[in-house]
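Q: Here's a chain of 278 amino acids. Please give me its 3D structure as tokens.
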Amino acid sequence: MTSLNGWRAAAVAHRIRYDVVSVYPEPHRRLRRQGPATLRGKHIPKTTTDQRLLDRRGPSDWVHTDPWRVLRIQAEFVEGFGLLSELGPAVSVFGSARTPSGSLDYERAERIGAGLAAAGYAVITGGGPGIMEAANKGAVSAGGVSVGLGIEMPVEQGLNDYVEIGLEFRYFFVRKTVFVKYSQAFVVLPGGFGTLDELFEAVTLVQTGKITKFPIVLVDSEYWSGLISWIHRALLAQGMISAADPELFRVVDEPDEVVQTIWDAHRPDRPGGTGEPP
């Protein structure tokens, strides 16, 4: 009996030794599985991932690193796509934030916003003052959908009071992607560098076929005349663009022309459309 018990004890001891050797074939080298990664020896950190997540002590430099920025960028795309995914047909209106209330350009932008809303389009702006405020105001006055996509600026600006669906971004390129993704047309009123940036972004995307059936309407022929002249005199004359490229946008002066131009461009896509905006 004693010999049998001794044999069993020896067998158990042997199995334990065998299991240890099987799991740790190199006892002198530590091993850790860290998610999909395998770490051995000196490359194993002194703490686990959960410890580092839950421990509130230590430096906060990690919130300024590129991997963390990538997550913020991803979050902005998710927020923008989620917020506007069911928006329906929409038009983005651009122009100067410095345009004063009561000016001709302000009143024109307000009429454009109202006309687009009456035609069944949501109106998207940068959410700020000036032209943006006027277009949002016009959309609200006509019972339409008013959207503002703001941007973090050195000087606090915030969304104007006529924005009904609003989102503020950290990154310009994320904001620009959302503008293009959820708009079926761009309307560009007089503005500065930011307005020009959005204009040429849209023209480039249409020129390269990245977006299709995307009318770009410039408002105020006098304001844009110098730019259009330069495009023909310099870009086209020197072969920097193709002969048809200046036709990628249209210049008008009246709000009704803006709405009609966009409606006509989209008419084949409107089931049962009459060809006349409401």
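Q: Can you summarize the key feature?
A: The chain has one domain: 70-267.
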